[in-house]
């Protein structure tokens, strides 16, 4: 089975990659995280994803698109809806790419994070799968949280301090 793994960052993709490979799945990464703020943070995460992919010998497709204005236009009036928009936009993109490039299924390293709304992500992934006509491979990668942290530190990967959008940056640093 060939799976396209949406890769939000290098550290969060390590455990999902290891898990999927242990199941005999051929994994290609897909970096598309258009609303990371500021741009320097976006670049650090993109570069860390590439570093991890190189270290783990994982092919990585990078959609080097930074669309802060589009993100803000879609969530500024109701910032509390931002996560749903963020999940949907990323998962729609990976599902479309998986379908277009002939993968059997897609999934996301977002399912590794303890801090994400797991149920909402799953719903958005299932909607993307139905819309694109491709299988969403569901896995709850959260049990590997500590293993992923340990491995990312050993690998010297850049580890971010907040989810990624301008609102999560504010929540992290304006306390």
From TrEMBL:
Annotated keywords: 4Fe-4S, Disulfide bond, Iron, Iron-sulfur, Metal-binding, Oxidoreductase, Queuosine biosynthesis, Redox-active center, tRNA processing
Xref: SUPFAM superfamilies: Adenine nucleotide alpha hydrolases-like
A molecular function GO annotation: metal ion binding
Enzyme Commission number(s) of this protein: 1.17.99.6
Catalytic activity: epoxyqueuosine(34) in tRNA + AH2 = queuosine(34) in tRNA + A + H2O
Cysteine disulfide links: 163-165
Pathway this chain belongs to: tRNA modification; tRNA-queuosine biosynthesis
Residues engaged in binding [4Fe-4S] cluster: 8-9, 83, 86
EC class (word): oxidoreductase
Entry-linked InterPro entries: QueH, Rossmann-like_a/b/a_fold
Tagged with keyword Iron-sulfur: yes
Entry superkingdom: Bacteria
Entry keyword tRNA processing: yes
GO BP terms, alphabetized: tRNA queuosine(34) biosynthetic process
Family per similarity comment: Belongs to the QueH family.
Function, in words: Catalyzes the conversion of epoxyqueuosine (oQ) to queuosine (Q), which is a hypermodified base found in the wobble positions of tRNA(Asp), tRNA(Asn), tRNA(His) and tRNA(Tyr).
Descriptive protein name: Epoxyqueuosine reductase QueH
Gene name of this polypeptide: queH
């Amino acid at each position: 089975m060939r799976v396209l793994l949406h890769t939000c960052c290098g550290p969060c993709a390590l455990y999902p990659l290891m898990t999927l490979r242990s199941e005999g799945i051929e994994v290609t990464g897909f970096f598309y995280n258009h609303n990371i703020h500021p741009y320097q943070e976006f670049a650090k995460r993109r570069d860390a994803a590439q570093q991890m992919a190189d270290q783990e010998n994982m092919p990585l497709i990078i959609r080097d698109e930074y669309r802060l204005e589009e993100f803000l236009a879609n969530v500024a009036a109701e910032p509390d809806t931002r996560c749903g928009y963020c999940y949907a936009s990323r998962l729609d993109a990976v599902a479309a790419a998986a379908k277009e490039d002939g993968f059997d299924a897609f999934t996301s390293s977002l399912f590794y994070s303890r801090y994400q709304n797991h149920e909402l992500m799953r719903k958005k992934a299932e909607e993307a799968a139905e819309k694109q006509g491709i299988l969403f491979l569901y896995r709850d990668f959260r049990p590997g949280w500590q293993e992923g942290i340990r491995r990312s530190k050993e690998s010297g990967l850049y580890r971010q301090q907040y989810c990624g959008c301008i609102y999560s940056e504010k929540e992290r640093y304006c306390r």
